[in-house]
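Deliverable D2.4 — example input (C-alpha cells):
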C-alpha cells in the first residue's frame, strides 16, 4: 500500500511505537522507521533546524511541500494501523498523526466513531 507522509508524520510515527514488544513487532517498527527516515538531503532542502525549546522547524516556504510517498508491505501497514488505533483508543493520538490515521485506518472505524 502506498502512503503519503509529510515531515512531521515521518518524525512522529517512530515515536508512537512502544520501546518494548515482541521480536516481530520491534523488527517491523524498525523497518518502518528506517523506510521513512528523513535524509540529510531532505533536511538541507527543507532547512530543518532544532529550536532551543526542543521543537523542530522547517523553512516557511517549504510548509506543505514535504510530502513523500512510501510503499509499505501488508505487515507494515497492519503494524502502523494497530499502533494508530491503540493511540486513538487511549485518546493519545496527536494532531501530527491525524492525516496518517485517516489514510491508514479503515473508513469503518472512522464511521463507527461518528455514530
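Example output (designed residues):
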Amino acid at each position: 500500500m502506498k502512503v503519503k507522509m509529510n515531515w512531521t508524520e515521518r518524525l512522529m510515527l517512530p515515536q508512537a511505537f512502544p520501546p518494548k514488544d515482541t521480536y516481530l513487532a520491534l523488527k517491523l517498527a524498525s523497518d518502518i522507521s528506517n523506510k521513512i527516515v528523513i535524509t540529510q538531503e531532505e533536511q538541507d532542502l527543507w532547512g530543518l533546524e532544532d529550536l532551543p525549546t526542543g521543537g523542530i522547524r522547517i523553512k516557511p516556504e517549504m510548509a506543505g511541500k514535504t510530502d513523500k510517498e512510501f510503499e509499505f508491505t501488508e505487515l507494515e501497514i497492519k503494524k502502523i494501523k494497530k499502533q494508530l488505533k491503540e493511540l486513538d483508543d487511549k485518546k493519545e493520538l496527536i494532531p501530527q498523526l491525524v492525516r496518517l490515521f485517516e489514510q491508514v485506518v479503515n473508513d469503518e472505524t472512522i464511521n463507527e466513531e461518528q455514530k
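The chain has six helices and four strands.
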